């Protein structure tokens, strides 16, 4: 969720090359927590092979849920509530009071997740067609959602007083879904610098926010015995001149993170992975977490996760999602595009992560509908990718009725057309039609927006394969009784060997090869669907 300046990119590139050339840069304190064939070097990690389960799964659902959902006011609440003049600051002032007296630590205290039923939610996700599930383990707010050994600010000690990750893991296993966790806390050091600020005007002008508080300030209060610095990770460090800049604040902290901060982050992730054994870990970081500060942290976490998976399964079944990877790093991890899709067919697996609304639950927001999600899924899969979709969860641990309808719509389409998605591999080209020409890359991110603004038409196709079957998915309902696939310019051998069917219909389809392409005649009545899948056998 961050963009890198040229200077920072060059600095990270230099570090990456040095780590690649010199091997592990691990300090005496940072060591791989599980021994095995993988060592904490790019050279060793380049031997990684993407697990077949991930390539087959294609669709996962993500619970991007934590204490920032308590106000139900959208993303980055724990940061924006400290920025005077922001909508979330104004809401916080009106609802809770001034952040010098009632900070995010106190919002955590209000969060109870009282109606959280992971089994019920997992059933909804599975019925929607998800094959893997990812739970938020911590966000930039630095709050751990398990019984963390190294972060006292966690969901067992306060707030819900429940081991949320443990409950998610148990529910996913029971439902037969692969389990993953997402980790975002590496950036708390810079993200939370705003907690040290003061109002610049008004009744509280010059009064510091609660990010300057210490353990001693909690005497007689609900958080007595806990140190706010363990949450806010400020410890009095210098504030960046870019503290209010949403993009630059990530890159230019007032002071570099301390060794204690770096090692604590490592210990927390090691604890998480060791206890809950996720098959997937999503790092909301460029390259690896804290890579620009100490490459050994991410490299050792990666090697440990892979080795632990080998010890468990006899082979490596683990997946690491992270962002902005170099070509060399893409041999080690799965590149993740946030709300984006590849420009072209990728020869290596990748993932797009997206949300139907705000990342953290927000009332009265307009969601992406099932049609938008299905179109995104089809496009991503045709390019050799997976889609990880966030369904926002309310503070109490439930999802709303609109979200349930969206999940139902996704599941209904996949129930008919899933064979063209699950277990497939890309064809020689990913698609055809007007949407190919007007997909304009987002130059800032290097990829294209996931959700297309213009509507798809029936001339837009996406292709997948499975075994000897080619699937041609028309992205909209045809206005005539036929579909023309221009990418198929000639049929091999005898046309009598070709069989074409429409998924969801038992009618036999006739076809003819023309100079323009393969023309397929459809039944007089076809079911109303978001997209229509032709299965072509005998062509490959």
Walk me through what this model shows.
This protein has 540 residues and is α/β, with parallel strands linked by helices. It has 2 domains: 6-20 and 51-338, Glycosidases (TIM Barrel, Alpha-Beta Barrel), CATH 3.20.20.80; 431-537, Immunoglobulin-like (Sandwich), CATH 2.60.40.1180. The protein is 28% helix and 16% strand. The protein has 16 helices and 18 strands. It has helices at 6-22, 42-45, 52-57, 77-80, 87-95, 104-110, 118-127, 164-175, 188-191, 228-232, 248-251, 259-276, 295-313, 370-382, 401-417, 434-437, and strands at residues 59-63, 132-138, 178-183, 280-286, 319-323, 334-338, 340-341, 350-355, 385-390, 431-432, 448-449, 461-466, 469-474, 482-485, 499-502, 511-513, 518-521, 532-537. The strands form 4 sheets. Strands 1-2-3-4-5-6-8-9 form an 8-stranded parallel barrel. The radius of gyration is 25 Å and the shape is elongated. The chain starts with 5 loop residues before the first helix and ends with a strand. Residues 29-419 form the Glycoside hydrolase family 29 N-terminal domain. GO terms for molecular function: alpha-L-fucosidase activity. Its EC number is 3.2.1.51. Keywords: Glycosidase, Hydrolase, Signal. It is an enzyme of class 3 (hydrolase).
